[in-house]
Design goal:
The protein has about 350 residues and is of the alpha+beta class. It is built from 13 helices and twelve strands. It is found in: Cytoplasm.
Length: about 350
């Protein structure tokens, strides 16, 4: 790796939410576990490895997960706990490099090209980080090491859980060739289906396509696909990316059809968002309401103020005003969400506005 220039590590916690719950409650260890949802309603936020063996995955409808795994145990998420552990993990990252790009609470890219002299090799840095995470949190992490972000993320999946894998420059293109395109970060289900319709099933198939062909069918993303099929990814690790939104949402055990219940739920969600805003020290101008009806139709309504939201009561009033705009209720409500965006820090009252949509 030393001769390749950049040294990028992708660290990914193993079944993070589920592993935290199993760590904190010994009764949950070794059993199929889903965080979030219930047997009747909602969506799985995370699944333990025991549940994954039955095909249970995050973002899966809870009823589907329960059907796949009759013995599945559902537990409610504890996001405050997950955020606190994530802060511990990021403090560990910061001890090795200032170039950390968090992707979520449980994964991040690290650029260790200029790592501390005591740990010159990226593979050893990854080992040290994983060991420090385990000592501090009792949780395991997997890591991928390579010369770019695309390959590092692929590598972190290669030896999960509690493992790591290195893809050096000489291995990069050959490693990509046999992989299904659905494994590539940035290729979602819709893009994967379009690729397969064009006869593109693997990295090797993708490599045989010209950039012009890929651009014709996938627009600007075509050039990116052309590069990654050859193991090329020049994206830098972007430290301290500004957060664009913060929100709270809830899927209800029963559909809400009474206006008082819907109004109370929106007030509670706005309260959650304000609690986060106080802790984070961020001030947002834009408030967004999300409503998902019982038939899964979804609408959003937003309002951008001329100033950052100044108080809890103002946030609740704006959210209530957005809710009034969807009156009368056309059908029962399955999910509600409130989000704040267009952030400014306390010392950046004249900064650019960042818009956010669900």
């Amino acid at each position: 790796m030393d001769s390749a220039g950049r040294k990028i590590i992708h660290v990914d916690m193993d079944a993070f939410y589920a592993s935290v719950e199993q760590r904190d409650d010994p009764r949950l260890r070794g059993i199929p576990l889903a965080v979030g949802g219930s047997r009747q309603r909602g969506v799985v936020a995370a699944a333990s490895y025991e549940a994954r063996r039955f095909g249970v995955r995050s973002a899966m409808a809870s009823v589907t997960a329960a059907r796949l795994c009759p013995g599945l145990v559902f537990v409610p998420p504890r996001f405050e706990v997950y955020r606190a552990i994530s802060a511990q993990i990021r403090a560990i990252f910061a001890a090795y490099t200032p170039l950390v790009e968090p992707l979520s609470l449980d994964e991040a890219y690290l650029d260790v090209t200029s790592a501390q002299p005591g740990a010159p090799f990226a593979t050893q840095v990854a080992r040290d980080i994983r060991a420090a995470i385990f000592r501090t949190t009792g949780l395991t992490a997997s890591a991928g090491i390579s010369y770019n972000k695309f390959l590092a993320k692929l590598a972190s999946d290669h030896r999960k859980p509690d493992g790591q894998f290195t893809i050096p420059p000489a291995m990069g293109p050959d490693f990509v060739e046999p992989l299904p395109v659905g494994r590539f970060h940035g290729v979602g289900p819709a893009t994967e289906a379009r690729m397969k319709a064009l006869g593109i099933h693997t990295g090797g198939d993708l490599r045989r396509c010209t950039e012009a062909f890929l651009t014709q069918h996938f627009g600007k993303a075509g050039a990116h696909f052309h590069r990654i099929a050859r193991g090329i990814d020049e994206r830098p690790v972007l430290a301290d990316r500004p957060r664009k939104s913060a929100g709270s949402e809830r899927t209800f055990q029963r559909d809400l059809d009474a206006w008082d219940d819907v109004e109370a739920a929106v007030t509670a969600l706005a309260d959650d968002v304000w609690t986060w805003r106080q802790r984070a020290g961020m001030a947002g101008r834009t408030v967004t309401l999300k409503v998902r009806y019982a038939d899964f139709e979804q609408i959003t309504r937003s309002r951008t103020l001329p100033h950052p939201v100044a108080s809890r009561s103002e946030l609740e009033a704006v959210a209530a005003g957005l809710l009034a705009g969807v009156l009368p209720l056309r059908k029962p409500v399955r999910l509600l969400g409130v989000a704040m965006s267009g952030f400014e820090t306390a010392g950046d009252r004249d900064g650019p506005q960042m818009m956010f949509t669900f």
